[in-house]
Amino acid sequence: MYGARRQPGRRTLPPGRTPRLLLTALMLFAAALGLGPLGAQPAEAATNLVKNPGLEILDGPSQFPQCFEKSGWGNNDFSFTVTGDAHSGSRAVQIELTRRADGDRKTMMLENACAPQVTPAHQYDLSFWYRSTTPDVAFTLFRHDTVQGWVYWTDLKTLEQSAGWSRTEVRTPVIPPNTDRITWGGALYGVGTLTTDDYAMTDATVPAGPDPCATGGTGPECKGEWTVQASEMPVRAMHSVLLHNGKVLLIAGSGNDLDMFEAGTFRTSLYDPVTGGYTTIPTPEDFFCAGHVQLPDGRVLVVGGNKDYAAPDGSVGYKGLRSSYVFDPATNQYVKVNDMLAGHWYPSATAMGNGDVVSLGGLAEDSSGTVVNEHFSYAQNKWLPLGEAKQAWSFWGLYPSMILLQDGRLFYTGSHVFGNGLPGTGASVYDYQAGTIADVPGLRKKDERDQSMSVLLPPAQDQKVATIGGGNHTVSPDAHGLVDLIDMKADSPQYVPGPDLPKGRYQDGTPQTGAQGKVYVSAVILPDGKVLETGGALHTYREDPVFEASLYDPATNTFQAGLATDPVPRTYHSSSLLLPDGRVLSVGDNPGDGSFDQRVSIYKPPYLFKGARPQITSVASTDWAYGTDQRVTVDKPVVKASLIRPAAITHSSDPNQRYVDLPMTVDGNTIDLSLTSNPNLAPPGWYMLSVVDANGVPSVSKWVRIGAAGQVATARVQDFAEDLRAAPASESDTAVPESTDHGDHRNHQGHEGVEMPAGFDGCDHSYGTISQCVPWTFPKKLNTVAERCDWLKKNGYGTGLKVSGRDRHGLDRTKDGIACGKGDVRKK
């Protein structure tokens, strides 16, 4: 079994027991096996599915309880003892750790017929009695997958230190498909002792109501419902950030409008989904194509932005700002912090387990690809200087999707914006602290992942990532519909093919065919644990929108196709995010003609049409410390609870989006929720807390703050991804794509920036040589092909430009592959 290296013993009946005790023990064991007269038990008592639950029957010369084993892994000194100091009966098991470098030790059920059987889609209440001299104890759970074998599943909760006997109980998540047995117990991962006894497991499944969609239903309870708001946004929302007050920060900056940039007109608006109103926010610099992320206190860190637009002739690309600001929801103001080490246009921004932010990639002040890492210290409220911000001197691309893993490393998924993927496999694990980078194999079409979207699938504890769709107009004219999946808890993680995106339709009703898929994908985690996939287009030319939406279920690895679709095209510069009430907000569309659709759409998922919603009637505290149980009350039975981090999204990129499962201890309408002790699974900050009933209907969310006042727990981490060959990063690792020379790109203290190839500067490279930059939008009054071709000639583009992609400007009227040829510029 992964993560639990065993010390197995032989199993026989123990000698020296008195007949009476032996008979009693055998009767108990037979009852546990389902062989005894269970009808003699009270009718209301649920069947205990654990065999030898009181640890009374010993097994063989090892004298260890039958159906249990000594389990664990790692570098530590330990002992297991069968003790008479029991909670009930005459036996319990004590584990002692006298030294620990890593790993744990635990008493668990054997991985054979002794392991309790389970039914997929059911939930189970697990409990045992314990005494512990340390709080470093986790309630850990493994499952038997009929395909993969035994695998580590999750830690359900962290136990409080207890000198006397204490009972701990927790409800499992829904049992995934292909799971037939589970094994579980207390894992000791700190120096001290843990004694356990009297294990119990009962089926706690709440039956769901009939599914109308399984019998041909086509109403909103199956497809959901979109509505377009009456009032348009007052800004071109390039960036969407959900604040912990429920409002949405819509950042435009110059809004991809050169005239606005030259006029110094930069815009931000605050949208209230409850009232539908907008508040204008003064915007000091051009945050067009900046990075952004929520800080632990709910403020929003804005990273870089646009220093200058690309030159029309392609001689200079976009330039990144070194400036950085923090937006404070309490005052609705941007507050400047210190400058970064380098400029960043299209940077990533990943929240770390200690509340800090690491930002990578983008374009520097001279339009080169920056190789400088940035580290924002939350405690100091500033960007760290060189020497404190750790450097790999590697180029990570534009908006590289960098997802924080449970052990603190960063997973570059391969999702990015513009151009080819990075050299190698196109995906990697970056250990920021150690400075090592290891390739991760398996990503298909790694050079066609421009504005694909990657998401850490629910729950975050599973450490599974999906990378969805994408394209690259310099490689292939059409976007694809590939979905690749990876389990980062595996010993040797690699992407594997998932189900393709469902096919959609184009604006004229024509269905998609063949390998056609989508770029500009939006993927939104929902409180029922599914992922809404919506929006997009066939081409990275901001054209040919695709009308299609589906629900991806991580538990079954399937898409529910045929959902209602957003009436508004959602292509370039579009984004979608979850609102606290369970609806989804979609904004933005920036077609190739330079216009911007400022309509706002709201989606009600199918779960909002499936009956009355459960309610969280009280939350004992809104400040949650890691590794604690938090009490809430509800008005009706619920089957699961979760925390969802609020979105901060642009360009199909939100690497911080995550859903954290909260195992439950249920006592009627009072529920204790167990928060992970690992801050890398739930970085500190504000989260949306919701509960879901058996029909999949979620409550309206309550806001809670995780790790308040800077509290960060010691992470309990299962070892994983150990077989990846991590190489130290160095300057030689820097990717330098082929490009025309734009001069000396040194963006910090002699370290060269990356010369950017065509495709990164926002120009249309379908015409002429790959280094030429034909504008996306011609100057006004140039309406005919002849006028546009004449303008290109006067501006040094020459005549007879080869068409290497789609002829989006209609300059090749003769369809001979040459734009602005003699036959193309005819007057009629």
TrEMBL record:
<feature type="compositionally biased region" description="Basic and acidic residues">
    <location>
        <begin position="806"/>
        <end position="816"/>
    </location>
</feature>
<dbReference type="Pfam" id="PF09118">
    <property type="entry name" value="GO-like_E_set"/>
</dbReference>
<keyword id="KW-0732">Signal</keyword>
<feature type="domain" description="Galactose oxidase-like Early set">
    <location>
        <begin position="613"/>
        <end position="706"/>
    </location>
</feature>
<dbReference type="InterPro" id="IPR011043">
    <property type="entry name" value="Gal_Oxase/kelch_b-propeller"/>
</dbReference>
<dbReference type="InterPro" id="IPR014756">
    <property type="entry name" value="Ig_E-set"/>
</dbReference>
<feature type="region of interest" description="Disordered">
    <location>
        <begin position="806"/>
        <end position="828"/>
    </location>
</feature>
<feature type="domain" description="Glyoxal oxidase N-terminal">
    <location>
        <begin position="270"/>
        <end position="593"/>
    </location>
</feature>
<dbReference type="InterPro" id="IPR013783">
    <property type="entry name" value="Ig-like_fold"/>
</dbReference>
<feature type="compositionally biased region" description="Basic and acidic residues">
    <location>
        <begin position="739"/>
        <end position="752"/>
    </location>
</feature>
<protein>
    <submittedName>
        <fullName>Galactose oxidase-like domain-containing protein</fullName>
    </submittedName>
</protein>
<dbReference type="InterPro" id="IPR037293">
    <property type="entry name" value="Gal_Oxidase_central_sf"/>
</dbReference>
<dbReference type="Pfam" id="PF07250">
    <property type="entry name" value="Glyoxal_oxid_N"/>
</dbReference>
<dbReference type="InterPro" id="IPR015202">
    <property type="entry name" value="GO-like_E_set"/>
</dbReference>
<feature type="region of interest" description="Disordered">
    <location>
        <begin position="725"/>
        <end position="752"/>
    </location>
</feature>
<dbReference type="InterPro" id="IPR009880">
    <property type="entry name" value="Glyoxal_oxidase_N"/>
</dbReference>
